Amino acid sequence: MSKNLRFSSHAEPDKKLIFVGGKGGVGKSSVASALAWRLSRTYKTLLISTDPAHSTGDSLGTDPHKTASRIEHQDHQLDTWELDSAKAFDDFKDRHSDELQLLFDTSTYMDQEDIDQILSLMIPGIDEVMGLKAVVDILKEGTYQKIVVDTAPTGHALRLLFMPEILNHWVKVMANMRWKYKTVQKTFKGKYTPDDADDMLLELKRTVSRMQKILVDAKASEFVLVAQPARMVISETQRLFDKLKEHKVAVNTLVVNCIAPDSKDDFYHQIFMRQKLLLTEIKALFPEIDIISMPLFPQEIVGIDKVEMFENQLFDYS
Ligand SMILES: Nc1ncnc2c1ncn2[C@@H]1O[C@H](COP(=O)(O)OP(=O)(O)O)[C@@H](O)[C@H]1O
Ligand SMILES: [Mg+2]
User: Fold this and answer.
1) Would you say the CB of residue 254 lies under 6 angstroms from ligand 1?
2) What average pLDDT does range 210-218 have in this prediction?
3) Is the Cβ atom of 224 under 6 angstroms away from ligand 1?
4) pLDDT digits (tens, 9 = 90+) for 167-210
């Protein structure tokens, strides 16, 4: 069976969420764009970039000033969205400002600035958490059959993936704060009636379990790794792979990008030989997943024509 067959399995109808991740600059946005473009030929697809550097927009040549764009080319289209986690967090605070006020006011008086500070200091990464919440909300809406997430370099991607725990912890802290208030209410009023703040906490808890379910369900989501044949990249990719496995996230594919061709020129031949050796090492290090080698192209992968060229190579490689 040729390697590209399993890679095509991203097109399984049930699998909705595909993360693309790896070290900075290895080709994540190029792979994510090509994969999303391929999926958009069959499915209603959304490509989300969570990288503050926002390079899917660079790959596909979308308007850098717009957060949402639609790329139409020949007979199909792809929607793209540059997700700003800090803004997602602000939106959440705006939407729930009354509930948050209620939540904090019930123990002690705080103004909006205090609340802002408490929320961002208390749980590091809460803005990224809200970013992934936005992804899950889109998934739930059901507008898209496939969502490809072009993640920020390794650290960010991990934070995004482990956010269920972060968010769970956050909800617990909030619930504890409420506990005192509830006890006082019960003592003086004889009973406690849940309010909007309780509803908000409940909604957050539901979001947490939804996300956890999606991330560990190999039928619903998977993580595509991207690397290059360089030792430092390989060790970081391995750490990411181990973390993902530890969290039971499905990883089936590693794309090794920018493989140089052989050459009669001694300098380029040496590079070819070095990469060949590293590729053998990579195959030994990741025996359980498919390794797809992508050649180094003379041009950058910018614009839909180049993305299509990259796509063809990515899917037809054998
Ligand atoms: N196989 C390749 N051949 C040539 N250029 C590539 C290749 N893959 C990626 N690039 C280019 O390398 C740069 C980094 O790739 P990108 O996909 O933006 O990486 P990342 O998203 O991981 O930072 C971009 O300019 C991109 O066009
Ligand atoms: Mg990128």
Assistant:
1) no
2) 85
3) no
4) 777 777 777 777 777 777 778 777 777 777 777 777 777 777 78
71-75, 155-159, 240-244: which has the highest mean pLDDT?
Answer: 240-244
Q: Nearest C-alpha to atom 16 of ligand 1 is from which residue?
A: 27
Give the distance (Å) from ligand 2 centre to CA of residue 152: 7
Q: What's the CATH number where 196 sits?
A: 3.40.50.300
Q: Is 25 in the pocket of ligand 1 (CB under 6 A)?
A: yes
Q: In the predicted model, is pLDDT for residue 301 greater than 70?
A: yes
Residue 317 maps to a domain: no
Q: Is the CB of 303 under 6 A from ligand 1?
A: no
Element containing residue 227 per DSSP (H, E)? strand 221-227
Total domains, the chain: 1
In a domain, 135, yes or no: yes
Residue 277 lies in a domain: yes
Average pLDDT, the chain: 83
Structural domain boundaries, residue 249: 4-298
How confident is the model at residue 8, as a pLDDT?
66
CB neighbours (10 Å) of residue 72? 9
Residue 307: its pLDDT value, please?
95
CA of 266 to the centre of ligand 2 (A): 32
Closest CA to 76 of 100, 42, 106: 42
Please state, in angstroms and as integers, the Cα–Cα distance from residue 243 to each residue in 125, 157, 179, 226, 246, following that order. 17, 11, 34, 15, 5
- Determine the residue of 30, 55, 60 to mutate for testing ligand 1's pocket, defined as the one with the most ligand atoms within 8 A of the Cβ atom: 30
Average pLDDT of 135-140? 86
End-to-end CA distance of the chain: 9
Does some domain include residue 314?
A: no
How far, in Å, CA of 177 to CA of 100, rounded? 12
Q: Which atom in ligand 1 lies closest to the alpha carbon of residue 258?
A: 1
Out of 33, 233, 301, give the residue to mutate to test ligand 1, the one with the largest number of ligand atoms within 8 Å of its CB: 301
pLDDT of residue 2: 46
Task: Please tell me if the CB atom of residue 157 comes closer than 6 angstroms to any atom of ligand 1.
Answer: no
